[in-house]
């Protein structure tokens, strides 16, 4: 159940009550694609970084180690030793990202495994069964994510098929949740709006799936090549047609600035690989923009990444030491940068929630964006 606590303009402050705990929104979900954050970050670490939700991927876990294996081990929560909420992506994005390895038809999608090339078929029912085996808190509906540059006729056909798939997902999830041996009979289902950069298709699709009374609604198919301005335009066009009394999730977004802009437009769930991916390459987020820890000027710098930061990295280690580790290709260097970045994102979301509660989100957003413009240090 989603509870809308307060609004500041269109910015929403809410709570999603789940079988694995309450999620305070707006929230950034830390991406654990294969049941782990890349960068040697444990679930114990995540607790110390104030992580609320971990996000894992249906397709990747189906391929390796196998969803049946995870089910036999008690489900994804036990497998990765995480008792807080987990959202599982449906595998639909791989329809987009593995374009050269797949064939789409009404029944579903035939993939070629990116690991060993063996054929995999996944449709709405298969995606729901895999996610049920994983026992995640929130399951995402199986969809197709068309390219932002796709022709209008193709996008319309794709969106119509995604709607039909969503009906099948809902039917199958209801069946699975009613089984005696299901791992999580209270598993939630979020639907996904698509439509590339066509506003009218987006709005119509949002209206259609809003009628299905799902647990939440995602905006998919953005941050896949369109400009930031196009992304913000589509968010503005879509959100008003999604239920205000349900969470709205912008998939795969994004930078701190992207998140602030989307919060302003009524989005309250986010995920992105940026904190971990950039951290592994020595790029860290601060209140004054991004820093490249490989920069020679940090060679003798005994300061933490950011003064006043409460993350495990900044409480103990210097820029000089972290730079040394990165240059020496020591895994600890990557780990320390990823820990800092995840803490930065989670802390920013705490501040966002407080600012909305106190009706000063616009002031907070302006202050943040001005600080980020000092990047490239």
Descriptive overview:
This protein is of the alpha/beta class and 377 residues long. The protein folds into two domains: 2-272, Alpha-Beta Barrel (TIM Barrel); 284-372, no CATH class. It has 14 helices and 16 strands. It has an eight-stranded parallel β-barrel with strand order 4-5-6-10-11-12-13-14, surrounded by four helices. Strands 1-2-3 form a three-stranded antiparallel beta sheet. Strands 7-8-9 form a three-stranded antiparallel beta sheet. A hairpin with a 2-residue loop joins β1 (2-8) and β2 (11-18). The mean pLDDT is 95.
SSE diagram, text form:
Blueprint: E1 2-8, E2 11-18, E3 21-25, E4 27-31, H1 43-48, E5 54-57, H2 58-63, H3 67-72, H4 76-80, E6 86-89, H5 93-97, E7 102-105, E8 108-112, E9 119-122, H6 124-134, E10 138-140, H7 152-177, E11 188-193, H8 199-210, E12 216-219, H9 228-238, E13 248-250, H10 256-264, E14 269-271, H11 274-280, E15 283-286, E16 289-292, H12 319-327, H13 331-357, H14 361-372
Parallel strand pairs: 4-5, 4-14, 5-6, 6-10, 10-11, 11-12, 12-13, 13-14
Antiparallel strand pairs: 1-2, 2-3, 7-8, 8-9, 15-16
Helix pairs in contact: 6-7, 7-8, 8-9, 10-14, 11-13, 12-13, 13-14
Task: Summarize this structure as a short list of keywords or feature phrases.
377 residues, alpha/beta, TIM Barrel, eight-stranded parallel barrel, three-stranded antiparallel β-sheet, 14 helices
Quick recap of the structure?
The chain is built from 14 helices and 16 strands.
Poorly predicted regions: none
CATH architecture of the largest domain: Alpha-Beta Barrel
Structural class: alpha/beta
What is CATH's topology name of the largest domain? TIM Barrel
Q: Gyration radius, to the nearest Å?
A: 20 Å
User: What kind of assembly state do the chains in view correspond to?
Assistant: single chain
Number of helices: 14
> What percent of the residues sit in helical stretches (DSSP H or I)?
40-55%
């Amino acid at each position: 159940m989603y509870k809308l606590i307060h609004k500041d303009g269109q910015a929403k402050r809410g709570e999603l009550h789940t079988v694995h705990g309450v999620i305070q929104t707006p929230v950034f979900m830390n991406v654990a694609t294969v049941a782990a954050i890349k960068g040697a970050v444990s679930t114990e670490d995540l607790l110390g970084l104030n992580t609320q939700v971990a996000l894992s991927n249906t397709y990747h876990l189906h391929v390796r180690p196998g969803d049946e294996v995870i089910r036999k081990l008690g489900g994804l929560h036990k497998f990765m030793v995480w008792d807080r909420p987990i959202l599982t992506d449906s595998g639909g994005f791989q329809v987009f990202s593995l374009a050269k390895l797949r064939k789409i038809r009404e029944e579903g999608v035939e993939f070629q495994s990116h690991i060993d090339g063996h054929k995999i078929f996944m449709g709405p029912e298969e995606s729901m069964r895999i996610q049920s085996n994983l026992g995640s808190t929130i399951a995402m509906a199986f969809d197709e994510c068309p390219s932002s540059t796709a022709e209008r006729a193709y996008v319309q056909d794709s969106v119509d098929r995604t709607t039909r798939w969503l009906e099948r997902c809902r039917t199958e999830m209801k069946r699975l949740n009613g089984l005696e041996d299901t791992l999580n009979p209270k598993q939630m289902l979020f639907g996904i709006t698509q439509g590339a950069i066509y506003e009218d298709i987006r709005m119509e699709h949002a209206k259609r799936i809003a009628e299905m009374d799902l647990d939440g609604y995602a905006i998919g198919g953005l941050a896949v090549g369109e400009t930031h301005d196009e992304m913000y335009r589509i968010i503005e066009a879509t959100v008003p047609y999604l239920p205000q009394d349900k969470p709205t999730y912008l998939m795969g977004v994004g930078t701190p600035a992207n998140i602030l802009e989307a919060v302003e437009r009524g989005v309250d769930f986010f995920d992105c690989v940026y904190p971990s991916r950039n951290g592994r390459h020595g790029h860290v987020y601060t209140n004054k923009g991004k820093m490249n820890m490989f920069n020679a000027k940090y060679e003798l710098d005994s300061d933490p990444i950011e003064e006043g930061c409460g993350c495990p990295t900044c409480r103990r280690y210097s820029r000089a030491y972290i730079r040394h580790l990165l240059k020496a290709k020591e895994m600890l260097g990557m780990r320390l940068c990823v820990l800092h970045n995840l803490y930065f994102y989670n802390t920013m979301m705490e501040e966002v929630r407080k600012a909305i509660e106190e009706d000063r989100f616009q002031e907070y957003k302006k202050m943040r964006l001005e600080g980020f413009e000092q990047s490239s240090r």
